[in-house]
Design brief:
8-stranded parallel β-sheet; two-stranded parallel ribbon; alpha/beta; 44% helix; 12 strands
Length: 352
């Protein structure tokens, strides 16, 4: 990593940590109590022991089992109660004045069963894992993991997302990071004209040309049908839907987007015998979720649906447009959990 890139990264993380520490101080002083709202829905992805990786563009998407336990204990110490995503549908009517915390995990990684589930079970905390049918059936790939492996294992790659071949010399972390951003821009549709499926197919082809099997990555990292069934059998576990392909639904025709939702619920029901009542929008940010997707989630029969829009759950939440708070791998301290749960960082971001 270049000195300049490293300096920028350090400055950004330092600023965020400073904001969280300030928010914690305000909360501890008893200020801005109303910012907490009714409670918080937390989002996680990987939960696995810490490992040294030469290139980790997805480092924000993984926490350790120890930190998960730290987060649970921090919330317990603050008087939080723990609820399932199904309970979100009636949270404003249950009459319990205590703040709530709800834990969710996206994509259906193997480590959710191996490392996260035992922590939740030990503390009696319910949790929901949103699974992607295409990952379960090994018909679709995790482009962010494919890109990471491609850029880690090679010193040079050539990519073509419809704008002509572009070669990347991967001499250091900064060069790999730049290449990753290039890939992400085309797949997320911020650059280029390809559909997400077309862009992922081109990435997968480039990976195969370099001796990397994207489907094998999916198989290595995510749960199969038997794994989903085992996870569903864990006390307190709920399996939620997360589409078939993990595509940004806002970029799809309406009928296709609805089909992604319904088909993912069908796949889960076929495995577990229970139809999921909660849905997570892939990516979940404002570019991926609009009022149309909210309407489609309701049409597909989901009681609740979660985004990745940062924030706490308000007094009168939109059940199919729930905000979530990311437990970020770069901020694994109890203090940060308390600060985020207070809602103060989001109040300050909104200028109020």
């Amino acid at each position: 990593m270049s000195i300049v890139t490293r300096a920028r990264m350090v400055a950004r993380h330092t600023a965020i940590r400073g904001g969280l520490i300030a928010s914690f101080a305000l909360s501890r002083a008893g200020l801005l109590k109303a910012a907490r709202g009714r409670g918080a829905v937390f989002t996680l992805h990987h939960v696995r022991p810490e490992a040294s990786r030469p290139f980790a563009p997805n480092g924000h998407l993984e926490i350790t089992p120890d930190f998960l336990e730290t987060a649970i204990l921090a919330l317990k110490s603050q008087g939080y109660r723990f609820i399932s995503t199904d309970a979100l549908a009636t949270i404003t009517e249950d009459g319990d004045p205590r703040p709530f915390a709800c834990f969710t995990l996206d994509d259906g990684y193997r480590n959710n069963l191996e490392h996260a589930a035992p922590v939740f079970a030990r503390h009696g905390v319910p949790f929901t894992v949103y699974v992607t049918a295409g990952f379960i059936h090994r018909s679709h790939t995790l482009w962010w993991e494919t890109a990471t492996e491609l850029l880690t294992r090679n010193n040079r790659v050539t990519l073509d997302f419809g704008d002509g071949p572009r070669s990347f010399a991967l001499d250091d972390y900064a060069a790999r990071d730049k290449a990753f951003d290039h890939i992400a821009g085309f797949i997320r549709g911020t650059t280029g004209q390809l559909s997400e499926a077309e862009a992922v197919a081109r990435l997968d082809a480039a990976a195969r040309a370099h001796g990397i099997d994207p489907v094998a990555i999916t198989e290595r990292l995510t749960l199969c049908s038997d794994g989903i069934a085992a996870l569903a059998a864990v006390k307190g576990a709920t399996i939620g839907a997360h589409t078939v392909t993990h595509a940004a639904l806002s970029r799809l025709p309406e009928a296709t987007a609805l089909g992604e939702m319904v088909a993912s619920a069908d796949a889960i029901e076929a495995i577990t015998g229970t139809r999921p009542r909660s849905f997570a929008y892939p990516y979940g940010d404002r570019s991926a979720v609009s009022i149309r997707e909210q309407r489609l989630a309701e049409q597909a029969g989901f009681l609740t649906a979660v985004t990745t829009r940062p924030g706490i759950v308000a007094t009168r939440p939109a059940l199919t447009l729930q905000p979530r708070i990311s437990l970020n791998g770069y901020y694994q301290r109890a203090l940060y959990v308390r600060a985020l749960a207070s809602g103060i960082p989001f109040r300050l971001m909104a200028g109020g």
